[in-house]
Amino acid sequence: MNIISKKYSIRIIQYAVIILLCLMSGSLFAQRDTTKKQTIDITSSYKPVLRNAVKINFSASHLNADTTKPKMNYSVPSQNLFYSYQPVTLRPLALQQDTNLYLGMRNYIKVGFGNYTTPYVNAGFSFGDGKKSLLNLYANFISSKGKIQYQDYSQLQIKANGSFFTPKNEVYVGATMHQNDNYLYGYNHTLYNYKKIVFVSNFRILH
């Protein structure tokens, strides 16, 4: 009985080994590379070519001028203005003369004295009532004298203005007088001795 069981187990092992070998051979056959290798066939030589560059055209063509005149229709409504008042007519009136004319204190005098023997006088006087006549006098005087011989000068100005009134007109008169006396100096007084009248320069203006 033991001998039969041993034989039976040996056969089972043999069958199992045969089946295992068959499976291993099938798996090895399935792992074979059956894909076809890719090949490149060159039929002509490669010549690289650059694409043509696109240039910007700065000198563009001008647009055609639009010569059509637009038609503009204006509609301005009429505006009627109505004023609720009436303007008053202007009546010019003559200026009334002021009979109470008071001119006040109209006289002045100014006197001064400075270095280099410089006297100064400025005065103004008014005459008349301002209704029939009016007279104004102005005077201005200044002179100076230095230590050098003939280092002198003087300036005198007198001005007079007058107005005379009539019932319809006014007469105005005026006069002015300028006198300037200048002396030349600075030469060598030890070598030359001249009179004062030689170096004087008088300028008088009347108008």
Strand and helix map with partners:
Elements: H1 2-30, E1 108-114, E2 118-127, E3 133-145, E4 152-165, E5 170-183, E6 200-206
Antiparallel strand pairs: 1-2, 2-3, 3-4, 4-5, 5-6
How would you summarize what this structure contains?
Helices cover 14% and strands 31% of the residues.
Adjacency order of strands in the biggest sheet: 1-2-3-4-5-6
Poorly predicted tracts of residues = none
| Structural class determined from secondary elements | alpha+beta
Distance N to C terminus: 182 Å
Number of helices: 1
Largest sheet: 6 strands, antiparallel
What is the element string, with H for helices and E for strands?
HEEEEEE
Helix content: 10-25%
* Beta-strand residue percentage: 25-35%
- Silhouette: elongated
Number of strands: 6
Mean pLDDT score = 80
Radius of gyration (Å): 68 Å
Walk me through the structure.
The chain has 207 residues and is of the alpha+beta class. The protein has a domain at 108-206. The protein has one helix and six strands, in the order H-E-E-E-E-E-E. Strands 1-2-3-4-5-6 form a six-stranded antiparallel β-sheet, with no helix packed on it. Strand 1 (108-114) and strand 2 form a beta hairpin.
